[in-house]
Structure formats: C-alpha cells, structure tokens
Amino acid sequence: SVSICTKLLYTLYLMVGYVLCLCVKDGMHGLIEKFPFLASHACDSASIQDLCYGHSYVYRITFSLVMFYVLHMFMTCDCGVDSSVMRSLQTRHFGIKTLFLIFIFIVSIFMSTEFFGWYAKIALGASGLFIVMQIIILLDFAYEWNDAWVEKEEPKYNFFLLLASLVFFVTGCVLIGFMYHWFTPSDDCNTNATFLHITLICGLLYILLAIRLEHASILPASFVFMYTAILCYGAIQSGSTSGECNLLWSEKASTGLNGQVLISSAFAVFSLMYACVSASGSASAFQVVPMDEGEEAETAAGQFTFFHFIMALGSMYMAMILTNWSINAGTDTSASSYDHSTASMWVKIIAQWITIVTYTWTLFAPIALRDRDFD
User: Fold this and answer.
1) Burial level of 252, CB count in 10 A (0-12/13-18/19+)?
2) Is the pLDDT of residue 196 over 70?
3) Which residue of 83, 124, 126, 348 has the smallest Cβ count within 10 Å?
C-alpha cells in the first residue's frame, strides 16, 4: 500500500544516515585535514582526535535525523488538521524534505560540543526506551511467525517450528556459557555473575512455562531467551572498564566495528523494517490508537505519528551503538570513556529486565484476564 511504501522511504533516510555514520566514525579525521572548518566546533579533546571527531559527527548526523522525524511527528499528529492535508505532508514533497534534512545537518556542524554532550545523555535514555519498544515489536513478530506456522497444520511446519526454537535456545545457552567463561574469571566478578544468573534462570523458567501453558509456544520463549542473552552480553561489555572481569577487554578492539555493534544494528534494522511493513508491528502492537481492519488502519493519523516517534528513537539508538554507548561528545580526553560506561550498562540491563517482565506478562495475561481476547 501507499502507507507501507511511504514508511519504507522514511526508513531509507535512517539507513542512509547509518551508512554515513559508519563512514565518519573512523574516517572523519582525514576529512578534517582537507576541510579544517569541520573541526571548529567538533571536538575539545586533542589527545584522541580520531575517536573524538568520528563520534562528534555521528552525533550530528543522528541529531539531524531526530529533528527530521520529530518535525514529521508534529506534521502528522491529529491536531484538527484536515486528513487530506496530513496525508499530503506524509506522502509527498520528499525533495524539499531531503533539502531540509541537509540544512539541519549543516546547522548542526556549527553547534557547540556542550550541546551534543546533553544530546548524548538524552540519546542514552531514549535508547533504553527503544530497546524496550524493539522487543515488543520482535515479540509481535515471534507470535505472528508462530501462529502462521501453526495454522498450516502440516507436519513439516511443526518440525520447522521445533527446529527454529531449538536454534534460538541453543544459541542463547552457548552464548551464556561463553559469557560465564569470559566475564566471571574470578570470584570478584559478582555483578557479572548476577546478571548471568538472572538471564539463565529467567530464560529457563519462561521456556518451561511456555511448554506447560496451553496458550503459550516454545518459539517466542526461545527467541526471547536468545535476545535477553544478547542484551546481557552488551550490558556486561559496556560495564567492564578493565580486563579483570572481562577476558575480551581490549582498548583497541572496543573502538572498532565490533560484533556487538553489528548484532545490535541487525536487530534494530529488522525491527524498524517490520514496523514499516506490518500494521501490527507499528502503533497497534502498543495499542496506541484503535485500528479497524483494512486501509482505514493504514491511514490512521496516530499510526503515522507513532511511526515517526519510533524512527526518532531509532536514530538516537543508532548514535549510541555506533559510539559504543559513549555519553560524551568530545570533551573527555580519556580513551576508555568512549568505549565503556556504567550508565549504558544499567540502561541495557534494565531494558533486559523489562523485556523479561514483558514477555512473562504475555504468558500470564490470558490467565489473569480471562474475559479479554488475546488472539
């Protein structure tokens, strides 16, 4: 439909921004040597300029995208404006919108480093919210996937369902096993051990519940188990400031395009794409606006507004994962501050706990609220 195509176009802006961020993340220093004016407001740190300049411009690109999507939130909100006008603003004038986005970025070049220090802190909190919203979208996908295969009523789809569940479960178990080896090399690593115990125990618990409860399924449970294990890995990596409780710790390795960045990016891109092509993966998955079936749901003003809200959060999340969850914007001269942060560790682990609680609620909700239809 027109709605899906339009959303994909807006997602393309984020994808292009992601590619640009990858380019400037490690290559901005060379550009600044050719165009010195780019450094005028980019970085206050002289000792680690390669990192500083790259991160500074990742913040500027993502800030421009955030402003772009926030503007569209107000342009498409249900504020008494005629629906045909809102639809026109949503689906047309992409040339002008692109020029406006470029204008925002040019303005951001001359904005102060202190401003982006505050933006980084806001992006950190917004990223935690995005992770939670992301798991709701991924949960919706897992349930839709499970229902689609169950409805086939063919033995081969039951086998595929079991195989996919087994792959997710084994992946989660193997990752947790490696994390026990990497992140608890001594008895002093109590925080890491606690995070791992919670992840493993909760994962096994809701997989057992999914097996016993008639309305539950093993596929969403194993998928959530794998995803929470990945969140745990990211949290421990962010909180490890030395090699004492992290055998993988390396100042040099942590600054590049590592596996954690790629995995986080893959989940984020998949969530955003699913939110584009699935009405249930957008506003209705969060029950933000009531929707009827068919085209009427696709044209709901609230759905467009909520979609741009997700994209704005996704832009800030992109800033975090591409700067290794750094919450400074060029004022800190410590290289380790660009790679590890206790604040980012707690954002990720709290998001993981919310994920666990959210999924557990989906298991018990049909029992606690028998008068509601959860199909």
Assistant:
1) exposed
2) yes
3) 83
Rounded CA-CA distance 290/225 in Å is 31
The answer to whether residues 254 and 294 touch, using CB atoms and an 8 Å cutoff, is no
For residues 1-28, one letter each, b for 16 or more C-beta atoms within 10 angstroms of the residue's C-beta and e for the rest, the string is eebeebbeebbebbeebbebbbebbeeb
Q: Convert the pLDDT of each residue in 265-305 to its tens digit.
A: 777 777 777 766 654 444 555 554 444 444 444 445 556 77
Residue with tokens 């028998």: 370
Those residues with Cβ within 8 angstroms of residue 48's Cβ, 6 or more apart along the chain or in another chain: 333, 335, 338
C-alpha to C-alpha distance for 266 and 130, rounded to whole angstroms: 14
Split at pLDDT 50, 70, 90, the class of 102 is: very high
Separation CA 325–CA 261 (nearest Å) = 10
Helix (H, G, I), strand (E, B) or coil at 135: helix
Distance CA 109, CA 198 (A): 44
Q: Give pTM, 2 decimals.
A: 0.76
Distances (CA, A) of 297 to 134, 291, 323: 21, 5, 37
Contact 208, 239 (CB under 8 A): no
**Residues whose CB falls within 8 Å of the CB of residue 152, separated by 6 or more in sequence, listed in order:** none
Alpha-carbon gap, residue 375 to 74, rounded angstroms? 33
What does each C-alpha distance from 70 to 63, 248, 304, 308, 315 come to in angstroms?
10, 39, 12, 7, 11
What is the SS3 assignment for 20-84?
HHHHHHHHHHHHHHHCHHHHCCCCCCCCCHHHHHHHHHHHHHHHHHHHHHHHHHHHHCCCCCCHH
Residue pair 140/281 in contact (Cβ under 8 Å)? The answer is yes
